[in-house]
Amino acid sequence: MIESAKGARDILPAEAGRWQFIEETARAIFGQYGFDEIRTPIFESTELFQRGIGESSDIVAKEMYTFADRKGRSLTLRPENTAPVMRAYLQNRMGRGSEVTRLYYMGPMFRYEKPQKGRMRQFHQIGVEAIGSEHPAIDAETIEMLMSFLSRIRLDKLRLVLNSVGCPACRPGYRETLVRFLRPFADDLCRDCRRRLDVNPLRCFDCKVPADRKRMREAPAMQDHLCGACREHFARVLGYLDAWSLEYEIDPRLVRGLDYYRRTAFEVLVDELGAQNALLGGGRYDGLAEELGGPAVPGFGFALGEDRLAMMLEDREEPTAAAEEVVVIAPTEAALARALLVARALRRGRRRVRVDPQPHRSLKAQMRRAHDLGARFVLIVDDETGGRGGLTLKRMADGAQETIRPDEVASRLEAMSDG
User: Fold this and answer.
1) Which residues pair with 381 in a beta bridge?
2) DSSP-assigned states of every residue in 17-76
3) Does the N terminus or the C terminus of the chain have fewer Cβ atoms within 10 A?
4) pLDDT tens string 178-217
5) Cβ atoms within 10 Å of 181's Cβ, excluding its own
6) Is the pTM higher than 0.70?
């Protein structure tokens, strides 16, 4: 038997309800803040990610699914969606007539890494991008929107952690300071950090090796090397968060793992997740548009892993697969055609209705199946004999039932729903 590829999994109906709940809530909250949905292709030119994410990143160096098409062009399944959204923004000239373009997306991403619980090779992200303004209010309001969303889906015990990662004016000096600190310990660093030391030493803060993590806690902090403009920008972001009484922590050694980040960087942590406790992250990426060949266009955004979010809701009383409102039963083959017509009429009245054509099964077995499906009502369609055409409507919660005419189905369902 053929099974799913390693690192990919099925989202079955019993779990899909949680995903729908998350996505519907996100759409509602983001829409209230003026964000519109965008859907980008699942594959893009490999160059987009090489230039956007940075060739020194682990994603580009190790984790991308890259292939050549029949014309020999190099394509990559998207490992993240900020670069594709910026590409779409530039290509379609979405900034015309608007200072800020607010976009959100939902969909699968692909990275070749070791599969583990909540982290798959095909994973799903919900993300937000606010493009066109470098004002600190954009950073703060987008973060406030995110925390409102997480609160709406009733996640608690969250920690919002922020830092400023500087800009091209102040980061080079900090980079030199960091390299001077790390160079004497180069032989003791892991292989990845030795490589990062030469190409992007800030990435050493992302290292998961315990010895390197301990070393990086002693490293100089970016906060002590910010230029005046970055320091002011960060202070204003925090000021807005204070005005909303939004709790946060400052981690002077927090960095983001992609090259395009500038100034504000943040993560939301959940301690119950253990060592890998980052639920999501984001920040400002004012240099990305230029990396992609466009004009200087500032941006701010975040992306959260929907897989981990759905996993966290497993123990909460959130909806799973939708229960059948009405199950229509045809005890005989002769009654099936009428059952399908009744079901069609109910669906046009926006009710969720299920008909399983199983007249060979006993009525008792079909009633048991309706119970297993969580049906609120069962409608038994009798054979049309003697011109009567009777239907039996049963409320599953208390067993109340009555015999009705076909033209009474909608009104009696309404009445019994209120009863």
Assistant:
1) 391
2) HHHHHHHHHHHHHHHHTT-EE----SEEEHHHHHHHH-TTSHIIIII-EEEE-TT--EEE
3) N
4) 888 878 877 777 877 777 777 777 777 777 778 777 777 7
5) 16
6) yes
